[in-house]
Design brief:
It is a single chain. The chain is mainly alpha-helical and about 70 residues long. The termini are far apart. The longest helix has 14 residues.
Length: about 70
């Protein structure tokens, strides 16, 4: 099956650690996202709600790209 649950993916990769990986890359999926993506995404969603642009997905995409470059 090409679609795997998060648990299955973690089980399959639980013993694999690349020597070049460090910090956030070694965290479980939820912790990784909570530390790296969620804060910026929530900030973007708050700004999106204030701006209410006619093209919210495009607006949010540009917002995230802009934040990733800083």
């Amino acid at each position: 099956n090409e679609f795997k649950t998060e648990e299955t993916h973690q089980q399959e990769n639980s013993g694999f650690k690349d020597q070049n990986e460090s910090g956030a890359q070694n965290l479980p999926i939820r912790a990784y996202l909570d530390q790296t993506v969620v804060p910026v995404l929530l900030q973007g969603l708050a700004e999106l709600a204030k701006a209410r642009p006619p093209n919210p997905i495009e607006w949010l995409g540009k917002y995230l790209i802009d934040k990733s470059n800083k």
